[in-house]
Structures are given as structure tokens and as C-alpha cells.
Amino acid sequence: MIDTTPLAIALAVSGGALATAKPPLPIPNVMTYPLVSYHAQQKRRRHLLPMQDDESNLQTTVIDPRASRRRSEAQQVGALYQGYGTHYVDLWCGTPPQRQTVIVDTSSDFTAFPCSECQEYGVPEHHIDSLFEEGASSTYRYNSCANGCFARQSRCSGDKCTTSAKYPGLGGWDAFESIDTCYIGGPHEMATEDNGSTEDLDPRHVSAFDLVFGCQTRVTGLYLTQLADGILGMSPKAGSFWSQMFDAGKMGTAKQFSLCFSRSPTVERKGTEAGAVTLGGTDKRFHKTPMVFSSGSNGGRDSSFSVHVRRIYLRRGTAGESVVSSSLANLNEDIKALDLPEDILNAGGIIVDSGTTDTFWNPGIAEAFNQVFKEMSGGRHHSNDEISLTHDELMALPTILFQLESSEEVNAGMDAYNTPGLVGSLDPTHPFDVLFAFPPSHYMEYDPDTGMYTSRFYTTDQSMTVSVLGANSMMGHDILFDSDNHRIGWAESDCDYTNLVTENGFAFPITGNLQPPGSTTEGSIPPPVGNPGEASISFVAVGKRQTNQSTDRFSDWFEECLHTDCANRLQVFLVLFGLVVIYISYRLCCCLYRRYRGRNEYAYSNVRTRDTELRTFRHDPVGTHFRDEYSDHPDDDDDDDGYKIDREFDGDFA
To answer: What mean pLDDT do residues 633-643 have?
Structure first.
């Protein structure tokens, strides 16, 4: 029987060099699922600050065995994995369960993945898993129009509720609404049922419920070429996965979830652990610093989680990657703010979007940012071109610090001047604001094929209408999305799910052998189809989604316009275009007719002289000849015996 305790999904991620804190006691009613981490990168980045006295919040974290939860306090922990720059989680749907990998996207309202009727899909060339077979699930049914469509963008087509999502230049998908029993997390390669474990870190502790999702019939662009099969909608809207789970009574009493990301320079098809997602709250055992809270904002899109930035700072790389400077003598040393007003910093709004690979800011900050970056990096210009850096040069680049608006009420009970993550003396007017670090190891992306680095913090994209804190800025943090209290929590973290699970006596193997639906023993089937001998895939991230190939914007638009609502507009356009072609053809025919007729009957001259005449002749067997009455040229071939009309004129013939 499925337990109804809240579910939290934690992602194991590799973070930066972080300030550490005394481990807080666990919070009840939360479950966590893991992401897959890049352990070599974790070890390199895990530099803890020296232990301080008991009154300081900077203490080396120690896992307390007493932190293990009893079932009455449980939260479920499960893994996240890395795709081409974004993070995905295992979604198991159907009876017996079939695995679908889905990108965790805090700006998408709906969950969708390719089903058996999909005519355009990325299996097996791109996607990890096979198409979802509706007929193989005894609990599957499509959502009939008679029951009312679920998603706000859905429309009735016959008896089915159809829906779609389009991203200009990036692709999209078409689907129809479906319902089946689903859960996320659990073992990566074998379906499971809730085993009634008393420990939330047990990967086999899961919670299933009836999920309304989109059965995709067509995918294009990045949705076709991404590694994950589909998308997990995690926006604040009612149709999102976490919202449906809460309504089903599987997430406790808190409308909260948290995401914790890491990044690897290579991605394996079998699964590359990269963090954790927690549904129902947050798992404090991941935290290196206390969780502090920024106020929610209405400045971004209403379908996304938004923040308001008070100031942006740059700090010299010598101070480390944590929000807490490694220069303990002066925590505010070597920091300089951009000299810009808040209305420029927040123009268009700012959202936190886990489905966007990179971080983008409105171009209004570009000049000021580049000026301060050059000053804090010893004369190096900031650009988004590839550059060659040694490790020391990378770590010497400035860390970007965002001051997020908050208040004493939101961070009640905290010492603003001694809590890592709060602004404190850096801005005495707003000491309870949140300080959020974006170090160079996160905004500089390494390409192992070229050995070059590229900055993935963009300030010059004129097409951006909203600023985006993307997945690369979220790395190294456990971020709580708290809809109940209209706030976002921030805590620095290693997000090392595998380490936390194994320390508590559980195994989490990733072998590449996915068990067939209904398996309960350790059998094996061939790994997902890929290139023979393929071990890993390097990636380049762009735009809203990640891609490893270029996109033709016009062909994408034309292809999408052959489907859904755009088809009507395309038909109108083609009709109008056809009428224009017919009209032009008619005019061209008329012109050609006149030219042909004139060639046989008329000779025109527009020379402005009284010596020019127009003469008309009957056809002779040879052809039409023209005569200039006043010409004595020996080559004159005039038919002087022909019928002629002499006429002088003093201008052009029209």
C-alpha cells in the first residue's frame, strides 16, 4: 500500500567551496529523490572553511547518526540526473511502471513525454527511453472532453483534450491529455513499490498517485534532440507535477519543494547523477550553510518563480566561491557593486528557471557589468567567446553576488550580521536581504573537446524580455520553492545524494541495464540504444533549452505551422499568396501579348525628333519591315509599296 507521507526529492550535486554550518535537525513530512553527481568535480570543489567557535555559523558539517528519520518524520529522497545542461528525474508511469526521464522545469506548467502514437520523436537516436506504451498499462486512460480538459491551454479535438507548447526557435510539442498512476525517483533501473521503509533515504520508498500528463504525438527542435524523454512541469501553476501531487494528498501539508544541482562536463546515457529534488520541503542534511529566504516577487512571468534584485556585486576570485568570503578578517573585502538603479537591474522581471541552461540578464547592465568585471579580473574583458584558461586563472575570475530583496519578517529569528547568506553589514540599510553567490566554476563552462571555457552569463542578448537565473546559477545550492509563504529559500550545498544514501546504509547502483516492466529481481536487458561503444556525450548549452546541433528558425516555424492553430493562419496566407501569384501571372501574360502583337504590327520610337515616323504595314511572307521615309541608307529594306500612314509627331509615343 502506498504511504501518504509527503514526498521530497533530493538531487545529489557537486557544489562550490562552501561555508559550513552546524547540521540542523531534520524537518518532518518531506521526501527526497537523488540527482547524479560528478564526484571528481565534487572532491575538487569541496573546500571547507576552518571550524569556528560555537557562536559562529561557520562550522564543519558532520553527519549526525541521530539525524536518521523515523517513518513518522520521513521525507523521500531520490536522484536527479544531468542532461545536456539541464537536470532530469525518473518518472515511472503505468501498471506495471514504465520509465520516462523528464527535465525538471520550474517554468513549465504541465508534464509531458512521447507516447506510442508519436509520429516524430527522438527514440532511439537522442532520447534515453522507449516510447510510453499506453496499451501496456492496465491503469492508463485518456482524459475525455466529457470530463473537462485539465490544462489551461488544452482544447477539445474529437473526444480528446489536445494541448501543445511552442518556443520560437527552440521547438515544441503536441500532445493529448492522459491519466495514469505515476511516481518519481526510486531505483534508476528498476520499478518499485513503496516498501514501507522507516528511512526516507531508502531509494525504494516512493509515493504514487494519478497524474494528468500529456501523451506527446509530436516533438520538434530541442525536445527532439534532448537526452531526457520529456518535461516535468514544476511551475507555480495548478497543473504542475508538485501541485497535482499535493492535491492527491501525497506531499503532506506544505506546498513546497527544493532543487539541488551539480554539473558534469560529460554526460553518460546510463545516467550521470547531478543533484536532488525534494517534494514537501527541504532536507537539511544537504546544507552547508543555513537556509535563508528571499521574498517572492511579481516582477517576472506569472507562471514562474520570481525574485527582486536589490544590487549586483562582483568580488575578486581570491575570496573563494562561497557566499562567505575566505578572507575572514574582512568578509566585505574586494567587493564592488554595479552602479545601477533597481529599475534597470529588474527591467522585465527576474525568474528562477531550472529548465534554462544558462543565466541571462537584460542588456541594460552590460556596460556597467563589463567595466567592473574588467577591474576585478585584472584587466580581462568579459565576453561569451571561447577562451583558454588554466585552473588558477579560472578561479581568479570574480564571483558574481546577487542581493535578493527580503526582510526581517521573512528571515525572522536570524542574526543578519552573523548568518552566512544574509547581507548584513554589506548593506546596513537592508541587512536581512539574501546574498547569493554565482562563482566562475559555475558560470564558465568547460568544453573537454576543445579545452576551452565559455562564459554562460549573458548580458548582451537583445531578445531577452526577462532576466533568468538559470540552472548554472542554481548549482551548489539547495533552493526551496515555497508557494505557501511566497518566498524562495537558499542554502549552499554539495548536494551529494549518493554519498548521503550510502553513508546511511543504502545502495544506489547505476549500471546501464534497465529492468523490463514488472521485474522484481536482478535481471537485465540491453542498455538504451546509442552509438556503439558510446561512454559519454559532451554538450553545448544555448537558450531556453540545451542543444548539440544548430537550429534553423525558419524551418522550425514552417514545420510547426503545419500543425495545430497555426495551420489556419498558414492556409489564409497560402490563399492570399496564390491570389497574388495569379494576378502577377495575368499581368505578365498581358504584357507578353502586347509585346508579341507590337512585334508584328507596330514599330515604336521615342526619339524626340521630327524625323521619326510610325508606319504600319501588312505582313509580307518574310516578315514585317519598317521604313524611315527620310533614310537614304543602302541597307534600307523598306517595303515602299506597302500600305502606310505617314505621321509626324513632336514627342514620345505611349
So the answer is: 47
**Alpha-helical regions (H) of 270-362:** 342-345
First to last CA, the chain: 94
How do residues 366-378 score in pLDDT, each as one tens digit?
999 999 999 999 9
| CA distances from residue 422 to 328, 415, 477 in whole angstroms, order as listed | 15, 9, 15
Task: Tell me the pLDDT tens digit for each residue of 95-104.
Answer: 999 999 999 9
State the chain's mean pLDDT as an integer: 75
Cell of 584: 502577377
DSSP class per residue in 371-432: HHHHHHTTSPPP-SS-B---HHHHHTSPEEEEEE---TTTTTT--TTTSTTB-GGGSTTSTT
Cell digits of residue 60: 564543519
pTM of the full structure: 0.71
570's enclosing H/E stretch is helix 566-601
User: How far from 569 is each of 153, 456, 555, CA to CA, in Å?
Assistant: 18, 37, 16
Amino acid letter at 504? N
Neighbouring residues of 175: CB distance < 8 A, sequence distance ≥ 6: 112, 115, 162, 163, 164, 214, 215, 216, 217
Asked whether 486 and 493 are in contact (CB, 8 A), the reply is: no
Q: H or E segment at 494?
A: none
Distance CA 562, CA 558 (A): 7
Give the residue among 67, 66, 62 at the shortest CA–CA distance from 77: 67
Report the 10 Å Cβ neighbour count for 43.
11
Average pLDDT of span 279-299:
90
Element (H, E) at 253: none
- Could you tell me which of 505, 491, 485 has the C-alpha nearest to residue 285? 491
* Rounded Cα gap, residues 310 and 26, in angstroms: 32
**Joined grid coordinates for residue 501:** 544514501
Strand 98-105 relative to strand 292-295: parallel, antiparallel, unpaired? unpaired
Beta-bridge partners for 176: 162, 215
Report the alpha-carbon distance of residue 307 to residue 298 in Å, rounded: 8
Query: Which of the 8 DSSP states describes residue 308?
Result: -
